[in-house]
Amino acid sequence: MAVRVVVVEDNDVFREALVLLLGQQPDVEVVGGVPGGEEAVELCRRVAPDVVLLDYRLPGMDGVQTTAALRAVAPSTAVVCLTASATKREEEAFLEAGAVAVLTKDAPLDEIVEAITRLPSLR
């Protein structure tokens, strides 16, 4: 059974590319892609994904605030931060808010896919 994923990224081109690339993976089913935290919380409330792949810097609620909100509405959903860069303090804030991993956007696609597909078993 495929891992159900929501992608949260405010850069439309990057989000669409990530949705397309992840959607081609045999063990991944992308169930949505949204540009911000508020939309992510609402979507996750409706579709209950296994994993949310979440950018740090978002308009409105940032990634840490979104992580905390997601954990409240979808406690069985694993949150993975995917960011261009994060300081050690930002990474710690993500993990304290309930994220299970922090990856960089320049990580190889297979590393991102591996993290997504192994995470539901870690929750």
Number of helices, counting only DSSP H or I runs of 4 residues or more: 5
What Rg is obtained from the alpha carbons, in whole angstroms?
A: 13 Å
Q: Output mean pLDDT.
A: 91
Secondary-structure class:
alpha/beta
Tell me the overall shape.
globular
Strand content: 15-25%
Distance between the termini: 16 Å
> What are the low-pLDDT stretches, counting only 5+ consecutive residues below 50?
none
Helix/strand layout:
Blueprint: E1 3-8, H1 12-23, E2 28-34, H2 37-47, E3 51-54, H3 63-73, E4 78-83, H4 88-97, E5 101-104, H5 109-118
Parallel strand pairs: 1-2, 1-3, 3-4, 4-5
Helix pairs in contact: 2-3, 3-4
Describe the protein.
The radius of gyration is 13 Å and the shape is globular. The chain has helices spanning 12-23, 37-47, 63-73, 88-97, 109-118, and strands at residues 3-8, 28-34, 51-54, 78-83, 101-104. 39% of the residues are buried. Helices cover 44% and strands 22% of the residues. The chain has a 5-stranded parallel sheet, with helices on both faces. The chain starts with a strand and ends in a 5-residue tail after the last helix. Strand 4 (78-83), helix 4 and strand 5 form a beta-alpha-beta unit. The protein is α/β, with parallel strands linked by helices and 123 residues long.
